[in-house]
Amino acid sequence: MINGIQVKVCGITSLIDAEAADRVGADFLGFDLNPKSPRHVPLEVYHNIVTHLPYRKKIAVMTEPRKEELRHALAIGFSLAQIHFNHTTPLEQIEKWSRTVGARHLWLAPELPPEMDVPGEWLSLADGFLLDPFCADENTRDSGDWRKFARHRETHPDNLWILSGDLTPDNAGEAVNKSGARFVDVSSGVEISPGVKNTAKLEAFARALRQR
Ligand SMILES: O=C(O)c1ccccc1NCC(=O)[C@H](O)[C@H](O)COP(=O)(O)O
């Protein structure tokens, strides 16, 4: 927790990076299990890392997983699964993911078009939602997308709302202040290359949250 904000550092691929994230105050560490991701972490490496950091919450980051993959992730010690999926995914599929691990072990990270809100029928299926409120147009970022995050958080306080997507040391303070987020997720904004974190950027990110 940094200045009242919970932090997840995602895309951890090494013990060095896990320890650096831990030192700056990350509450959650995200491990990408998608083999196609440049941040993919093989399970042997994951096991080696968590042996040294057993007390941190570990998130399995997955893209539209099969039921068996999801079940396996929880069985080998991940605290919960974060599923990335397209907004057109049928409700029955999301219900299956939820039934497989239980809503309290599930975060959903839907790719939503800017004009689309999280559908009401998804809310009971997962504890948390990652909402990426950034949009291509810099000019509308301030007025539209921060409000979208804030609106979800205020309207549905029983869910955990996690601000994610393109957060950096430069924009984290403003992002939190304008969105009202109490939980942020950062990955590429604290890297020197995909899957390799940078201690100075992690420290700068933490400083931005402390000084906001
Ligand atoms: O990081 C990836 O390569 C990735 C690939 C496929 C699905 C999800 C992926 N990453 C998720 C995350 O890193 C974070 O949870 C989050 O979306 C923030 O990422 P960033 O915008 O890089 O801060």
Automatic annotation (TrEMBL):
The answer, when asked if Ribonucleoprotein is one of the entry's keywords, is no
Q: Which Gene3D superfamilies match?
A: Aldolase class I (3.20.20.70)
Keywords on record: Amino-acid biosynthesis, Aromatic amino acid biosynthesis, Isomerase, Tryptophan biosynthesis
Q: Which catalysed reactions does the entry list for this protein?
A: N-(5-phospho-beta-D-ribosyl)anthranilate = 1-(2-carboxyphenylamino)-1-deoxy-D-ribulose 5-phosphate
| Highest rank taxon of the organism | Bacteria
A single GO molecular function, which one?
phosphoribosylanthranilate isomerase activity
Can you give the residue ranges of the N-(5'phosphoribosyl) anthranilate isomerase (PRAI) domain?
Answer: 7-206
Keyword Isomerase among record annotations:
yes
Q: In which pathway does it act?
A: Amino-acid biosynthesis; L-tryptophan biosynthesis; L-tryptophan from chorismate: step 3/5
EC number, UniProt record: 5.3.1.24
Q: Name one GO biological process term.
A: L-tryptophan biosynthetic process
User: A Pfam family in this protein?
Assistant: PRAI
PANTHER family of this UniProt entry?
A: N-(5'-PHOSPHORIBOSYL)ANTHRANILATE ISOMERASE (PTHR42894:SF1)
Q: Which family does it belong to?
A: Belongs to the TrpF family.
| Protein name listed in UniProt | N-(5'-phosphoribosyl)anthranilate isomerase
The source organism is Ereboglobus luteus
Q: Which gene encodes it?
A: trpF
